[in-house]
């Protein structure tokens, strides 16, 4: 008797959460340091703090851009 091949379970691959530094966000948005920190302070751009370092998830940056585009279109 031939044994069946093992069933391979398909798991979803969760993309790694990419965190950006303030200078990386500055470059992507072509804004100055104080403008980026103003967005963070006002809550328009979400971030996390790791020790003394501020990091912005790429999803937060994408959502910020999407929201701004929708506001501009309205």
Write the layout of secondary structure elements.
Elements: E1 19-20, H1 22-29, H2 33-42, E2 48-50, E3 53-57, H3 58-73
Helix pairs in contact: 1-2
GO molecular function: DNA binding
Organism: Streptomyces purpureus
Pfam family, one: HTH_17
Rg (CA only)? 20 Å
Strand content: 5-15%
CA-based shape: globular
DSSP strand tally: 3
SSE run? EHHEEH
Distance between the termini: 67 Å
Low-pLDDT segments: none
Query: What's the number of structural domains?
Result: 1
Arrangement of strands in the largest sheet: 1-3-2
- Count up the helices: 3
Task: For this entry, give a set of tags.
alpha+beta; 74 residues
Structure description:
The chain is of the alpha+beta class. It has one domain (19-73). Helices cover 46% and strands 14% of the residues. The chain has three helices and three strands, in the order E-H-H-E-E-H. Strands 1-3-2 form a three-stranded antiparallel β-sheet. Helix 1 (22-29) crosses helix 2. The mean pLDDT is 86.
Summarize this structure briefly.
The chain contains 3 helices and 3 strands; from the N terminus they run E-H-H-E-E-H. It is α+β, with helices and mostly antiparallel strands and 74 residues long.
């Amino acid at each position: 008797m031939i044994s069946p091949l093992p069933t391979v379970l398909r798991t979803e691959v969760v993309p790694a959460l990419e965190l950006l530094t303030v200078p990386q966000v500055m470059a992507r948005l072509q804004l100055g340091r104080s403008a980026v920190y103003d967005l963070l302070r006002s809550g328009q751009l979400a971030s996390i703090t790791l020790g003394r370092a501020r990091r912005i998830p790429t999803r937060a940056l994408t959502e910020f851009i999407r929201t701004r585009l929708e506001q501009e279109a309205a």
